[in-house]
Specification:
Elements: H1 6-15, E1 25-27, H2 31-41, E2 44-46, H3 49-54, E3 61-63, H4 72-79, E4 84-86, H5 95-107, E5 111-113, H6 123-132, E6 135-143, H7 155-158, H8 161-164, H9 167-177, E7 180-187, E8 203-210, E9 215-221, E10 230-236, E11 239-243, E12 247-252, E13 255-260, H10 265-279, H11 289-306
Parallel strand pairs: 1-2, 3-4, 4-5, 6-9
Antiparallel strand pairs: 6-10, 7-8, 8-9, 10-11, 11-12, 12-13
C-alpha cells in the first residue's frame, strides 16, 4: 500500500475481508504513518519506493497518494510489471496521467482505478431502466465541506474540487450515458475567511452534452460544514431517477420506489481487481486505467474551460 491516509485505510479494511490476501508493506510520505499502518494492518513499513520494490515478489500494489504525487510511482510499477490499483484522480495535471496511460497501454498490465461508484449493486437495474427510457438530462452535484488535507485546498496540488471529488459523478454519468463534451464551465471566487490559505474555487459549475444528446449540469461546492447532496439526478420521459451511494429512487406518475444499496463498493472494486490479477485478465476490473483516463480528460476539460489553473495543457 503506497499512501497511508483515509482512502488507504478503506482499502485495507476491504482487503482484510478477502481470503488469501497478505499485506506485504506500506510506504508513506511520513515514515511514522507507514509504521502506524504496518502496526495495524500487518506488513512492513518502508521509507522509499526503491526499498519497497526491492523487497520481494509483490503481486499487486495500491497507489493512494495525493493527486500531485502521481507519476514516478506508477511508471516504476509498470517497469517492473506489477499490477496496480490507482486511486482517483489520476494526477493533478493532464500530461502526467497521459504519460502513465501510454506506458500502461504498451505494457498490457492489469490496472484498476478507484471509481467505486461503478460497483454499486443498484446500477445493473438502473442501466436496464435507462434502455427503456433514456435519460434526456442529468444533473450532478457534490455539496460538501473543505477536506482537511492541506494539499486538497491548493488547486495546483489537487486539481480542484471538480477534478478531485466530483470526478466520481462525471465518471458515473459517462458510465450511464456515454462520452461527453464540455459546453461551458465556470468557477466562483477562491477567497474564504475560514481558510485563507485555500485557492480552490468555492463553487464550480459545468454544462455538458452527452453523445446521445442528453444535456448535463454539474456543480460542486465546499462551502458547507457538512455533506449535503452528493449524487446524480437523471430525467427521462416521465421518470426521475435520483442516484446516490446509498440508494436509487425511481419517481414517476405511479409513485416513488427506492432500491437501497446492498454492497460495499470498496470491497467490490478491490475484489474485482484481485480477480483480474489472479486471472491475468484486465477486463475483469470495474474501471481500467485507460477508461479512467477518459474521465480524467473530461474533468480537466471542465477545469480548463472554467479557467481554474492547474489543469495543464491539452
Amino acid at each position: 500500500m503506497i499512501g497511508a491516509g483515509g482512502i488507504a485505510a478503506r482499502h485495507l479494511e476491504a482487503l482484510g475481508k478477502e481470503p488469501g490476501v497478505e499485506i506485504a508493506g506500506h510506504l508513506a510520505r511520513h515514515p511514522q504513518s507507514a509504521r502506524g499502518a504496518a502496526s495495524r494492518w500487518g506488513g512492513r513499513p518502508f521509507e522509499s519506493l526503491d526499498d519497497l520494490l526491492a523487497d520481494g515478489d509483490l503481486d499487486a500494489v495500491w497507489v493512494t497518494v495525493p493527486p500531485h504525487a502521481h507519476g514516478e510511482i506508477e511508471l516504476a510499477l509498470i517497469e517492473r510489471r506489477i499490477p496496480m490499483f490507482v486511486e482517483k484522480p489520476l494526477s493533478a495535471d493532464r500530461e502526467t496521467a497521459r504519460r502513465i496511460a501510454r506506458a500502461v497501454e504498451e505494457s498490457g498490465l492489469v490496472t484498476a482505478v478507484g471509481y467505486q461508484w461503478r460497483a454499486l449493486d443498484t446500477l445493473p437495474r438502473l442501466r436496464e431502466a435507462l434502455k427503456e427510457r433514456p435519460a434526456r438530462m442529468v444533473s450532478g452535484s457534490w455539496q460538501g465541506s473543505l477536506p482537511e488535507p492541506g494539499w486538497w485546498r491548493r488547486v495546483e496540488l489537487s486539481g480542484g474540487q471538480m477534478v478531485e471529488q466530483a470526478t466520481h459523478l462525471f465518471d458515473l454519468a459517462r458510465y450511464l450515458l456515454g462520452e461527453a463534451t464540455v459546453l461551458h464551465a465556470a468557477v466562483g471566487d477562491n477567497e474564504r475567511s475560514d481558510f485563507p490559505e485555500a485557492n480552490v474555487a468555492v463553487a464550480a459549475a459545468a454544462t455538458l452534452r452527452f453523445q446521445g444528446g442528453a444535456l448535463g449540469n454539474f456543480t460542486a461546492t465546499s462551502l458547507l460544514p457538512w455533506t449535503g447532496f452528493v449524487g446524480l439526478q437523471l430525467i427521462c420521459q416521465g421518470l426521475l431517477v435520483t442516484l446516490t451511494r446509498e440508494s436509487v429512487i425511481y419517481s414517476d406518475a405511479k409513485g416513488r420506489r427506492e432500491e437501497i444499496t446492498g454492497n460495499d463498493p470498496f470491497e467490490a472494486v478491490d475484489r474485482a481487481f484481485l480477480q483480474a490479477v489472479g486471472a491475468g485478465d484486465p477486463s475483469l476490473v470495474h474501471s481500467s486505467y485507460a477508461d479512467a483516463m477518459k474521465t480524467h480528460e473530461l474533468v480537466l476539460d471542465v477545469a480548463e474551460a472554467a479557467g481554474e489553473h492547474g489543469s495543464g495543457e491539452r
